[in-house]
TrEMBL record:
Gene Ontology terms, MF aspect: DNA binding
The protein, known as: Two component transcriptional regulator, LuxR family
Alphabetical list of CDD domains matching this protein: LuxR_C_like
Domain called Response regulatory: residue spans: 24-140
A Pfam short name: GerE
HTH luxR-type domain residues: 155-220
Transmembrane segments: none
Annotated GO biological process: phosphorelay signal transduction system; regulation of DNA-templated transcription
Entry keywords, A to Z: DNA-binding, Phosphoprotein
Residues where 4-aspartylphosphate is found: D75
Length: 222
């Protein structure tokens, strides 16, 4: 990552953060081995302190309010609240904490939703930890750090065509739920659910609700 939106020249950023002292980090990752490895590697940086390691999205905001991290590293797919939903809640509850989304799923729709949630950065997990360390210092310095390849893909993909209600209905249909089950879960009538499903199927250019769910997830719209 070496262009204007990626990780590049960092000497000025490093010097600025050295003057501020230790950078406190909150790490939310549902895979224990990955979480432990990231914490260990980031902990080797002299100016980093891991103040919280979490495996559930519902814990992010309460622990952040307790530990007051400077930067929160959030995975997207977490048990409980997703990393994207937690990012929005965290930006409201603790606006001084910068949010950096770190995920395996480099999907354009996820990037758009992360930016809408107020995240300062979005990186995929296949980069070296040294680049992640640089990105942490950059977002703390007020910069926005985005994987350049993903940024280009997001621009070409266009906006999410689904309304919030269509997303809600498709999310409730993920496990093959019946229309009645979906209606009960989202507090709508079965007829209204059918209308939203039909609209979502049309917008995703698929043949049925399960194909619509797959297409929406692949694009990061759910």
């Amino acid at each position: 990552m070496n262009d204007a939106d990626g990780v590049s020249d960092t000497q000025g950023v490093n010097d600025a953060n050295d003057a501020k002292g230790v950078i406190k980090l909150l790490l939310a990752e549902d895979q224990g081995m990955m979480r432990g490895a990231l914490a260990l590697l980031l902990g080797l940086e002299e100016d980093f302190e891991i103040v919280a390691q979490l495996g559930n999205g519902d814990e992010i905001v309460p622990r952040a309010l307790e530990t007051r991290p400077d930067v929160a590293l959030l995975d997207i797919e977490l048990p409980g609240r997703s990393g994207l939903d937690a990012a929005a809640a965290l930006r409201e509850a603790l606006p001084e904490c910068q949010v950096l989304i770190l995920t395996t799923f480099g999907r354009p729709g996820y990037l758009r939703r992360a930016m809408e949630a107020g995240a300062a950065g979005f990186l995929v997990k296949d980069g070296p930890v040294e680049e992640l360390a640089v990105a942490i210092r950059r977002v703390l310095a007020g910069e926005r750090v985005i994987d350049p390849g993903l940024a280009a893909a997001a621009l070409s993909a266009g906006p999410n065509p689904l309304t919030q209600r269509e997303r809600d209905v498709l999310s409730a249909a993920v496990d093959g739920a019946t229309v009645a089950d979906i209606a009960a879960k989202v507090h709508l009538s079965p007829a209204t659910v059918r209308n939203y499903l039909s609209s979502a199927i049309g917008k995703t250019q698929t043949r049925n609700r399960m194909e619509a769910v797959r297409a929406a997830r692949q694009n990061g719209w759910l």
